[in-house]
């Protein structure tokens, strides 16, 4: 059974068509990476999956349930953004607790989940700090931790490394790969960085101009690109 199914998903903003009909199935525990040039519709697609924007046409199913009209908080999906969007006046613990409390979890359960998430992401020593007292990499780990305490079935990550310098980027990238190995779940990850895509993905979805050009394993895309666009995009150095 596919965890997520997208059928003919289109998105239009006023008169601009941004997604032209996306068809895709994503399995349980799969790590799927969307790549493509800036403006091709990657973030838009993630926002539709998260429920932050309505789908114009087409359907989206999660665990065989139609999700088009389901509120974001009821989807079991958590999204991590490119900019950390932490609450500046709250410490790390409170940042992680906030969303969990909104879900209606009691204090003990919130504490247990934060303990688990901070162990996993090595945030134990940082729980009392404010976001301004953290490095970029630490902040992004908190943002991931905040999503993790909600125990989502599906994780959406939109260019989570793009504000980090090169050294931190590989740290946090490894952290994300480790997280996926330990919690399972479905990861949907957006990047414009081919190296990230090639190292993290079970399957890569190559997008261009609101369409899917090709879907395949890193190796398939590398060895048998469907067209010149894919060959150029996957094959070219950053
Ligand atoms: P990517 O994440 O691949 O860089 P986006 O999904 O952010 O691309 O954007 C795809 C296209 O949709 C762009 O042309 C962008 O200008 C347009 N777009 C995104 N959000 C809106 C919006 N709220 N209103 C109008 N156009 C939008
Ligand atoms: Mg984007």
UniProtKB/TrEMBL annotation:
GO molecular function terms noted in the UniProt entry: ATP binding
Keywords: ATP-binding, Nucleotide-binding, Transport
Signal peptide: none
Superkingdom field: Bacteria
Boundaries of every ABC transporter domain copy: 4-234
Keyword Plastid: no
Coiled coil: none
Family per record: Belongs to the ABC transporter superfamily.
The protein's name in its UniProt record: Sn-glycerol-3-phosphate ABC transporter ATP-binding protein UgpC
Species whose genome carries this gene: Devosia algicola
Section covered of the full-length record: 1 to 238 of 352
């Amino acid at each position: 059974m596919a965890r997520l199914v997208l059928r003919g998903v289109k998105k239009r903003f006023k008169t601009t068509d941004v997604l032209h009909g996306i068809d895709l199935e994503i399995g349980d525990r799969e790590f799927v990476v969307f790549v493509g040039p800036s403006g091709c519709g990657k973030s838009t697609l993630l926002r539709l999956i998260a429920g932050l924007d309505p789908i114009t046409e087409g359907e989206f199913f999660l665990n065989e349930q139609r999700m088009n009209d389901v509120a974001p908080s009821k989807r079991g999906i958590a999204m991590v953004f490119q900019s950390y969007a932490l609450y500046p006046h709250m410490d790390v613990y409170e940042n992680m607790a906030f969303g969990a409390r909104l879900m209606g979890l009691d204090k003990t359960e919130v504490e247990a989940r934060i303990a688990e998430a901070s162990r996993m992401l090595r945030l134990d020593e940082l729980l009392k700090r404010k976001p301004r007292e953290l490095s970029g990499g630490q902040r992004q780990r908190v943002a991931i931790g905040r999503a993790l305490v909600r125990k989502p079935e599906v994780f959406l990550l939109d260019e989570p490394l793009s504000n980090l310098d090169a050294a931190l980027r590989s740290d946090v990238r490894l952290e994300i790969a480790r997280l996926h190995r330990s919690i399972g779940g479905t990861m949907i990850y957006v990047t414009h960085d081919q190296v990230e895509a090639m190292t993290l993905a079970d399957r890569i979805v190559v997008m261009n101009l609101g369409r899917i050009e090709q879907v395949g394993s890193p190796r398939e895309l590398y060895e048998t690109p469907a067209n010149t666009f894919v060959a150029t995009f996957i094959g070219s150095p950053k």
